[in-house]
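call fold(seq) -> tokens
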Amino acid sequence: MKRLSLHRMAAFAAVLVLTACAPAPTSAPPTAVPKPIELPKPTGVSQPSPVAPTAVPATLTPAVLPTPASALTAEDLLAAALSPADVQKLIPDPNQWWPEFPQFNVGFSASTTGKKVPGEQFFVLQNYRQVSPLAQGRVESGLTLYVDDKSAADSFTALPDTNDKGGVPMDGPAIGDESRYFTRCEKPCGPSATKTPYETTLRFRVGAIIGRISIFYQLGYGTAEALAKYAEPVVEKSRALLSGHLKATPLPGQYGSQLPAASADVGPILGSSVNPVESWALIDTSGKPEKVRDQLRSLGATELGFRRFALPADRDQVVEVTLFPFSDDKAAATWIQTFLHNARSSAGTLDAGNTGKLSAFEKTPDGDYELQFAAGSFVGDVFCYAPYASTSSACEAPVRRLAERWYAALSAP
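ret:
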């Protein structure tokens, strides 16, 4: 099956709550988007396997000294975000709320001003969507890491006049070192607005970390008290992270060795995780998430490996890979058939290179690039797009080369 084009979806997730007086749900997302910032040049040497905070619960470990913010990784920061385990404990009807793939935004700024915020390092997003008939619910969890407490405090002070401008303030419990609550509504916004707010947001700061919890479209879930409750474990984990007592756990088993490494043309690695099959079901183009989840499970897939890379040829682009481990070769071949049919009959079909007989490469109708192949009991998906800009042709050749390397590795005896 194919994945949904995410360049608009990711921009919506990161930007909707950052703009003033957002439009109605049926309107196009706002145009203000994070800007790319410079990344370290990849060395061409394979990087050590990073960590997967979403699949294995991060544990509190003894530490002597606080961890400098500059020493933390995007995976570490994700370990402090609102986790699936937190959701299971805190949100009503938790089985209806599925986690999206995390967004490791390294090399991008969260500011909508178009300028890099002093001291900002990177930000991560871990969002959840409600899956039920007619459901519109969405929970967004974001954390931004700064180089020190002062930089984070200065940014927090500036947010009401930048990213949070236009939000209608509301009272709520104090949480973290600083906190504020606000709502957004369909136009007109303001204290006298008669429209029902479709979003409630809590901003908070813990040392060098600024966090956000936002709830959309769910009346009753979005009270200030509920937001504070959802943020409590995030605040606790953020303090543990900065004090050196929390560290993301290594990728388990096959994922550390079977996800592709960085190379000169695709890298560095921005972040990795292990996710339930529901995360793919949310972005599958069929639009039938329960059916996609059930098919994946019936073919033996219970969780998926995920990794995001930078693209040196164009810093607006990222490359994301997803590893599907199935029960056997037949199950993998069954799963990939829909993608093969759609991509090979597409007007945007491309040369899939040396990625075996069960493979196809397509430039999607949205202009993104996706190559999928089967190798034994595995299916690999390679996807290149621009989260906050327009996808460029710089994606095509690196996607093909990465897929060829990955196919050869997974096919090796």
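The longest strand covers residues 120-130.
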